[in-house]
Amino acid sequence: METLITSSPLEAAAILNEGKTVAFPTETVYGLGAAIDSPEALAEVFRAKGRPGDNPLIVHIGTPEELPRVASKLSPEAGLLVTRFFPGPLTLVLPKSSEVPYAVTAGLDTVGVRCPAHPAAHEFLKCCHSPVAAPSANRSGRPSATSWEAVHNDLDGKIAAILRGNTSRIGLESTIVDCTGPRPLMLRAGAVTLEELQAIVPSITPAGETQKNEAPKSPGLKYPHYAPRARVVTHERGESPAAIPSASAWIGLGTPPVGIALAKLCTTHEEYARELFSFFRHCDREAIQTIYCELPPEKGLGRAIRDRLNRAAGNH
Ligand code: TXA
Ligand code: MG
Fold first, then answer.
1. Alpha-helix residue ranges (DSSP H) falling in the chain
2. Counting CB atoms within 10 angstroms of each CB, which of 34, 45, 213, 266 has the fewest?
3. Among all ligands shown, which has an atom nearest to the Cα of 108?
4. Residues framing ligand 1 (Cβ under 6 A)
């Protein structure tokens, strides 16, 4: 199929409303959207990405007021998080409403809901007649797309349209908090940090700390993720990898190891987060074989960067 590229949120929404797939920008990463009431478009999303069918999709809404369409109940904690962080880079897992089909939730009775804080996403979602299910707009397993060009590289010919927008401001996917259990769990770290969440709801804990040996609560977390073609090797700050093979790259905040062919020195964690996936893709274009990545400390935004690096490296 021909993939149309447009800068008009209105045109993009009209295509989605016809039951087709449309990629769109958000402040975290680009999403690949389908109307939740279009079984064909939902199937197309899984096909275009090569995504396993048991991995549920996040549902996107244009304004927090649309939440009752998607979720059947809001716990007091969830209510506090919505008030503080919607719209923004936070996804809440909530009991699903009857309007959300099981094709979106992969058979679960819960649904991930997000309201992006991105002007074009807001315009687009406002013009869509139904809430929009959207995973990250990359081929499954690859680094998420943080620019329309990255979406185009992965999905050209496989989706109906791309809403062309700016480079994603955050560059890592949303924080996910599951509010359906006895106490809220952070399933995925992101730009809304654990510290910020706990300032509003002190009982929130990261899922990994309470259930190390249990099946992952977020079905997607068991699959390989964020992987460039190059091998990813992580190291702590101050540690230097022993022997650097040729065609190696490095990204981090400290000092690049000696012998690196391509280095990306970041000055803040915000910059590290924003640049990481586009650097991975750049390394693949440059035929880099190994990418060394400095692990930031496990706090603030560093927690999300560490998580993506460890997954890309296959460390857990
Ligand atoms: O920033 C983001 O979250 C981006 C933009 C496009 O919104 N989306 C995104 O979607 O990262 P995706 O599909 O790449 O990752 C969604 C994750 C997956 O790990 C999935 O398993 C999990 O959210 N998820 C979705 N619904 C869930 C549910 N009901 N319960 C638990 N986990 C869920
Ligand atoms: Mg993804």
1. 9-17, 39-49, 67-70, 76-85, 102-105, 119-127, 148-155, 194-200, 207-210, 269-285, 302-312
2. 213
3. 1
4. 26, 28-29, 31, 55-58, 91, 93, 105, 108, 110-112, 114, 134-136, 173-174, 176, 187, 217-221
58, 61, 225, best to mutate for ligand 1 pocket (most atoms within 8 Å of CB) = 58
Q: Which ligand is in closest contact with the Cα of 171?
A: 1
Strands 90-95 and 110-114: antiparallel
Nearest to residue 133, comparing CAs of 39, 216, 63, 11? 39
pLDDT tens string 200-211: 999 999 997 644
Determine contact, residues 123/10, Cβ cutoff 8 Å: yes
pTM for the predicted model, two decimal places = 0.96
Question: Do the Cβ atoms of 113 and 132 come closer than 8 Å?
Answer: no
Residue 299 sits at φ, ψ, to 5 deg, of -155, 160
Burial class (CB in 10 A: 0-12, 13-18, 19+), 31: buried
Q: Which domains does the chain have, with CATH numbers?
A: 4-212 (3.90.870.10), 231-312 (3.40.50)
98 phi-psi bin (left φ>0, alpha ψ -120 to 50, beta other): alpha
What is the tens place of the pLDDT at every residue in 275-315? 999 999 999 999 999 999 999 999 999 999 999 999 999 98
